[in-house]
Amino acid sequence: MLPAKKLTGTDPARLVTRAMLPKVLTNVSTFTLNCTLNIRGGKTALYGPSGAGKTLFLHFLAGLERGQHDSYIRFDGEVWQNDQVFVPPHLRGVGCVFQESRLFPHLTVQGNLQYASRRKVLPIHLDIEEIASLTGIHHLLSRYPTHLSGGQCRRVALARTLLRAPRLLLLDEPLTGLDGESKWQLLSVLEEMQQRLAIPFLYISHDIREVILFADDLALIKEGKILAYGSLTEITTGGDIAALNSDDLFSVLYGTVLRYDALHQLNAIELIDGFTLFIAGASLQSMKRVRIPVLAQEVHISLAMVRQTSFLNTFPTTISAMIPLATMDTLLILQLGKQTLLSRVPNKICQQIRLSIGQRVYASLKNLQLFPL
pTM score, two decimals? Predict the structure, then answer.
């Protein structure tokens, strides 16, 4: 076994990969992961339909699957795999949170956490008590995995992986089975830990809201191939948005918390263009920067401002582009000040109300969530 090699020079991407990995599915069916992905760092989501190759790609990065000829992985200038080199999983310093918790059944929760804490990769102080409190498992420390629910096992697995302080964190649907409030809490924990560890996170999820709440960058994968990669803004404002299914089309707004309406439990958010919108939820710190993902199917269009309506947030916008979709719908690209909104409108409605580029319309937004930055 050859040791890892250091490369000379600099690379803007922290993780540089090329995966060529065929898998036999049945006696008559095969699947080939054939993709290239260079990750800048921060929080990247890998998103695509079931069977697209997401989990297989994470196994490739972790060293659990070995790519064929011309495959390579380079992380922070260190070669993990090429035609001459293969660094085994235990020498890569990668942390993995799998779909199954994979806890040690003979150890208590405390014992599982201590096992990870004694095997830190990076020289960063992480306190077991603190991580247990952040992930909501402090009351479970004396229990064994067989006495935990599925959601509790996922929390323990996440805490254990964080305590190892890895160089790269791979998360394969870590929040599946958790309720909305628990997901929001653990996404906040992951956000804080990513900043503290300053390592790349690669995150898989089938929930597009979860992805766009958490990720900085998005990689779209289908049938073993990467279709697009970029920041959320780059994906939604460029031609790569067409790589998403029509139900997954989204835009992202950014703003600042102005105040909290305690009576109605609403956060007032000032967008960068001076518009104010209201989002239900717990009180957030004033002047806190937030990200607000908006699904295109939840942006409704009217030609005039309707004041007696159930919509809480309605804004004047201008249609800058109209893109036909395969679903007998049209994707409207809307300008809301300096920010962009997407709206999916049936073709029949577009014809009935005679929508056109350059037209001023009113966009009503529903089902909004926000995520602190």
Answer: 0.87
